[in-house]
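In response to a reviewer's request, we include the raw inputs and outputs for one of the modeled complexes. The two entities were modeled together in a single run.
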Amino acid sequence: MPHIVLNSAEPGIRGLLRYRPETADPLSELAEVLLRGPGTLTRGERELIAAYVSALNDCRYCASSHAACAAAQLPGGMAVVEQVRADPGAAPVSAKLKALLVIASAVRHSGRAVTAEHVVAARAAGATDAEIHDTVLIAAALCMFNRYVDGLATVAPDDPAAYAAGAQRLIMHGYLPPPADPGREE
Amino acid sequence: MPHIVLNSAEPGIRGLLRYRPETADPLSELAEVLLRGPGTLTRGERELIAAYVSALNDCRYCASSHAACAAAQLPGGMAVVEQVRADPGAAPVSAKLKALLVIASAVRHSGRAVTAEHVVAARAAGATDAEIHDTVLIAAALCMFNRYVDGLATVAPDDPAAYAAGAQRLIMHGYLPPPADPGREE
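The model returned the following structure tokens for the whole complex.
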């Protein structure tokens, strides 16, 4: 049961976005830009970084949601997501993505845990400065979202189908809230 | 030296906001709503929560910046900020703020570390659901900003006067970037 009285029964961050629209706007825009906006990391790769950090933070709602989004957008599907979660170094992803996952794991621990060696290794594997920047910010942002979702004890569905359906909605409509229906105002 | 090549010499998050305007917009808007927007926690109290979490995360730039903003907006000034950092339970702040600082410290560790007992104690000290919500999100957001700033190894000024001057700018102009100067386009 959530720690505070929300104004909907929506699970995870969705209930929090509904509760506080003033913060929902920038939070949704941040997720949209980072995970779906223009960039050289694919949307699947970015969702994989988000799922990986959320799993390390033990945030069931975010880990399941982003895993479903990654699985739906990566060639290898959920098998790759699960291999990354179990052992990213051995997973069938590019050397560049492996190096970025190492950086994401360091960020999850602390910003100060990211070393020059991590960055050199990512560059050697082909990562650009923009990709390193975005990886650090995706990992940092998930450290916020995970704490927000669990710090208020929001509910997380048990059924994997709920996350798969959510992923399809996200892939279709994105993270931004739908525009208000002008018909409702009249 | 920052891990990536930035396009300015601005310190801390300012250089990162300049580097990636697409993410700067939602990040700035989030800080503005949470730390300065309408709310029943004073701006000084909110900056104090931000400074406290940043100090726990050992992020020198954010801890110094938010401490300066808190000091400039709290009746007790920097002395109170330093007492909170040293021992929040003994600092001369309200029982409500003490209880919210306990929640912020838990969030900093992990969202799952926030217990029903923490929330009951905050309510007993007079905190509303909206204040508990905002405390969790402020603490979570600082866990993002701290990791962003340190994960890319941005520079932090040594001179306390730099942070005090930054606080005055923030109090005057807020966290949103200034509107583009239309004269420049012509």
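As requested, we also summarize the result in words. Chain B touches chain A through 51 residues (CB under 8 Å). Chain B has a mean pLDDT of 95.
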